[in-house]
Specification:
Elements lengths: L1 H8 L8 H23 L12 E5 L6 E4 L3 E5 L3 H4 L2 H16 L2 H13 L5 H7 L1 H11 L13 H17 L5 H12 L15 H16 L7
Parallel strand pairs: 1-3
Antiparallel strand pairs: 2-3
């Protein structure tokens, strides 16, 4: 419902747009690679309930997100940071990883528990739709300036590593993920001390990506 509501207010670019077609193509590649990896590593059926959907909206916000069930939105504003198809795949893999690991579900449950203290989950969902809507925006990165910063540091690190594997299996060079975050760091902007933040610093994230790169590269076979 939240995904449909978002698209009703933010018309996605049509398939006639080459950038939109590219997002759909890379998304389909990542989705297929994700299912392949899960099926080959003892997680059969984990995403059977996913309905993979990929859309691009014309918005200069630096954002991309994936809701539960594989519903993805990219914003045109993040494409210059992605720079190329490998960069798009890096962000796509990261966002898909959040959905596969159910990070958004966990985050929303935590927020509902805090905001709806003393009330049952069903009461919050049924009797406070505005609160539920606002928490969904926050939990899944839909309302943030940069959606992939919406999760905890633990979730971010997990999604970084899973995303590297997903993009590598899909035939995209995982080394580009490091460059994406280097470009992100170059944009500037003051970051809070890492111990006060819900997400890793750019430096920590880049270091952890590099540390995991050899393992990710074992899955990488260029598609071209």
């Amino acid at each position: 419902s939240e995904y449909d509501n978002f698209l009703s207010q933010n018309t996605p670019l049509p398939d006639s747009d080459p950038q939109a077609r590219n997002i759909k193509k890379i998304g389909a590649d990542i989705a297929a690679a994700t299912e392949k990896y899960l099926n080959e590593n003892g997680y059969e059926g984990l995403v059977d309930d996913f309905d993979w959907t990929f859309n691009l909206v014309d918005d200069q916000t630096l954002n991309a997100w994936c809701m539960p069930g594989g519903r993805v939105v990219f914003y045109t504003g993040i494409l210059p940071v992605c720079k190329n198809n490998n960069g798009i795949a890096a962000v796509m893999g990261h966002e898909v990883a959040h959905a596969v690991a159910r990070h958004g579900n966990e985050r929303m449950s935590q927020q509902l528990a805090i905001q709806g203290a003393g009330m049952s989950l069903s009461t919050v969902l049924q009797e406070q739709p505005e609160l539920t809507h606002d928490l969904a925006l926050q939990a899944f990165g839909m309302g943030s300036q940069f959606g992939i910063l919406g999760y905890s540091r633990k979730h971010e690190s997990e999604a970084d590593k899973m995303g590297l594997i997903f993009m590598a299996v899909a035939g995209y060079d995982p080394r580009e993920a490091v460059k994406v975050w280097e470009r992100m760091a170059e944009l500037g902007g003051e970051q809070p001390p890492e111990f006060m933040s819900t997400h890793p610093s750019h430096e920590t994230r880049i270091a952890e990506l590099n540390a995991f790169m050899d393992e990710a590269l074992e899955y990488y076979q260029p598609s071209n």
